[in-house]
Amino acid sequence: MALDKTEYSMSAAEKMSNGAVGRNKNGVRVDRLDGHVHQNGSVKKEKRRPFIESFEKIPLLTAATTFIGFHLILLMGYITSIIFTPKVAREKNRKGYVPLYDRFESFYSRYVYRRLRDCWNIPICSCPGSEVTLKDRVTHDCGWTFEYTGTRSTALNLGSYNYLGFAQAEGSCSEDSAVKIKELGCATASPRIEFGTQKIHQELEALTAKFVGMEDAITFGMGFATNALNLPSIVSKGCLVVSDEKNHASLILGLRLSGATIDVFKHNNMESLRQVLHSAVIKGQPRSHRPWKKILIVVEGVYSMEGSIVRLPEILELKRQYKAYLYVDEAHSIGAIGRNGRGVVDYFGVDPKEVDILMGTYTKSFGSAGGYIAGSKVNLTKIIFFPVVRL
Ligand SMILES: Cc1ncc(COP(=O)(O)O)c(C=O)c1O
Question: What transmembrane ranges does the database entry give (predicted)?
């Protein structure tokens, strides 16, 4: 198996000799990034191993057949879209709002994805453990509607992110959850800000904040919505978001809804990020050339489709250099990497408080549902009470 090895090059901050704080060559204050985060958030200094990422090379035949297959399906989709009129609703009354789907996305979901989705998108009727029970169904109209056959099949689960094995039908996680649901019910029927906050929410938020090493955290019932609905309260028109090209759909939707200008940098490529930040700072806003109200870098801890780990120490250095803010989505890194399982900040031994917003979900490693954003008390209070916050 051929492997592509990328050795992590040590940044100025990391090359500094012992001592928790120093200055880089631009005179900017930088903290050493070679320790591990303790439970109380302090950083223990330790010699760091080089950061080596290895990716399997795709065999030419696999790449070629995938490419041809994908383009054939697209071609069939285009032909069907010309012959058959769409059966789906169009977006209406969205004057003043950004469209929820661009033209390609709506074409893709109607004419390409719909025909194929039954290959992987099948309802399950069991706990998503190492095996899943599928509810068999058939379609007679190319995936527009389905009929259940009444039978079930068991399949090996390669599709969910049960990193720590907590999502099982037996064991303390499911039994304790059942006890709590019996005691407290499974909904408050009110938003958090009205009457929906229970002691258990506050306990969860305090525990989450302590676990990720931040001052405070707010929790939400859905990971996707945590990104999609909170990003618009962090950035708005006049702000620039510098987003990794492989960011998750929930981040992309949140950024689109925010009305902020979005600039994309190449996946995990620090030179590309530096160039985008550099030109943003030099040019400012289009036409007026005023400085951006805020520049926010948005990345993920671990990218689920690529398996790559964000180059956090280098991003932190660029963040400081260009006075930007940083939002890290830890959906796939929390619980999964780092010496204490505390995510990518723990993995690199970075002080979590250097990141402005640490977002994560309970859906993957924790085998549950929902999401959180963690940060300083001040920032989070502003997110709750003000439509657009100044971090
Ligand atoms: C990076 C990332 N962020 C957010 C989410 C949304 O999380 P949830 O599935 O809990 O809605 C996902 C889901 O896969 C994800 O991969």
Answer: 58-84
